[in-house]
Amino acid sequence: MLTSYVNLCDALNLTGRLVEARKVVDEAMAIAGDIGRDSRWLRIASAEMAILAGDCGGLADAILPEEGRRAMRGTVRSTRACAAFDLALGRGMHDEERRRLDDLGPLADTVARAAVIGPAAVQRAELARRAGDLDAARRAIDDGPGT
């Protein structure tokens, strides 16, 4: 059931209805709390929507790895990394994000899924673009999925 809320949140966001998407994810977080569930996907979705809305206060806890929980893998790890990247990018923490992308590199190299490889390529390109290196930005995209 909680996954359905995440999917609805994503659909609303993708159609330009960010305010409604945030309400849906907030409702889902309340339901999860009522039934005693903790959902990484919901916390990540909540963080993503807050970042998109420019409301970044206190988001680090929602997107950092949790102690004592099963390790994040694949798409969950990649999605959380994307949210953390967006938050750090908004805070101007470019060097930290380069290191984080370097840490994510082995995962992207072993998982042949565009959901993992694509975001890493786009993030590398954005960091290069912000540094003024458009050739490196183009290479990052060229090295991404489907190349």
Q: What kind of sheet is the major sheet?
A: none
Low-confidence segments, given as residue ranges, are none
The Cα radius of gyration reads 16 Å
**What's the order of the H and E elements?**
HHHHHHHH
State which percent range the strand residues make up.
Answer: under 5%
End-to-end separation in angstroms reads 37 Å
Number of helices: 8
Could you please describe the fold and organization of this structure?
The structure is a single chain. With 147 residues, the protein is mostly helical. The protein has two domains: 1-64; 67-147, no CATH class. 73% of the residues lie in helices and 0% in strands. It is built from eight helices and no strands. The protein has helices spanning 2-14, 18-34, 40-52, 60-63, 74-90, 94-110, 114-130, 134-142. Helix 3 packs parallel to helix 5 (74-90). The radius of gyration is 16 Å and the shape is elongated. The relative contact order is 0.09.
Main features:
147 residues; single chain; 8 helices; elongated; mainly alpha; 73% helix
Write the layout of secondary structure elements.
Elements: H1 2-14, H2 18-34, H3 40-52, H4 60-63, H5 74-90, H6 94-110, H7 114-130, H8 134-142
Helix pairs in contact: 1-2, 1-3, 2-3, 3-5, 5-6, 5-7, 6-7, 7-8
Short description:
It is built from eight helices and no strands.
